[in-house]
């Protein structure tokens, strides 16, 4: 493959990882916060609604770049399979929490997401330290979101 074809291939792969990563939130259509969420008891440290969009944009971009870096190094292998698994779990949380209003089940699911992210991060780190580091903010965000989910579950018993 020529150098220009290789660069195009890599650029298209990066775009592909970005598109696939940002498609996960599209599965959330119909399960967005609404009157139900507004009526929940929330802790004083609950983030403002405007923060979630920019935070997700940054996190999903970092995630996609990390996956692309790993793909460039090891191709479609176990680390990328783990990446797609955690991405699917990520997409499932919102319909459980916001769509079904199941705070307890969402808490269980987000713990599974956290474990999947940690396994992905460790796998990415073995493939390239930069890729692993790029997932640290995502793991931190999901750690915070897990604690928030737990707190909301405790404040709002069914």
How is this fold's topology laid out?
Elements: H1 3-23, H2 35-39, H3 49-74, H4 78-99, H5 103-127, H6 129-134, H7 136-155
Helix pairs in contact: 1-3, 4-5, 5-7
Could you characterize what this model shows?
The chain is mainly α. The protein has a single domain, classed as Ferritin. 79% of the residues lie in helices and 0% in strands. It contains 7 helices and no strands. The protein has helices at residues 3-23, 35-39, 49-74, 78-99, 103-127, 129-134, 136-155. Helix 1 (3-23) packs antiparallel against helix 3 and helix 4 packs antiparallel against helix 5 (103-127). The mean pLDDT is 92.
Helix % is over 70%
Number of strand segments? 0
Structural class label: mainly alpha
List the domain count as a whole number: 1
Radius of gyration: 17 Å
Major β-sheet profile: none
Intertermini distance: 59 Å
Index terms:
elongated; Ferritin; 7 helices; single chain; 79% helix; 158 residues
Q: How is this structure best summarized?
A:
This protein is mainly α. Helix content is 79%, strand content 0%.
């Amino acid at each position: 493959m020529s150098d220009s074809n290789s660069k195009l291939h890599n650029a298209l792969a990066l775009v592909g990882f970005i598109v696939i990563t940002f498609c996960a939130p599209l599965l959330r259509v119909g399960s967005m916060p609404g009157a139900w969420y507004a009526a929940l008891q929330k802790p004083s440290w609950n983030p403002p609604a405007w923060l979630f969009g920019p935070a997700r944009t940054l996190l999903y971009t970092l995630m996609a770049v990390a996956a692309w870096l790993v793909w460039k190094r090891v191709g479609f292998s176990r680390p990328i399979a783990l990446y797609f698994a955690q991405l699917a779990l990520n997409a499932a949380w919102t319909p459980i929490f916001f769509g079904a209003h199941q705070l307890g089940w969402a808490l269980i699911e987000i713990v599974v997401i956290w474990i999947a992210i940690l396994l992905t991060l460790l796998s990415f780190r073995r493939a390239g330290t930069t890729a692993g580091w790029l997932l640290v903010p995502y793991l931190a965000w999901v750690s915070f979101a897990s604690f928030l989910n737990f707190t909301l579950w405790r404040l709002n018993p069914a």
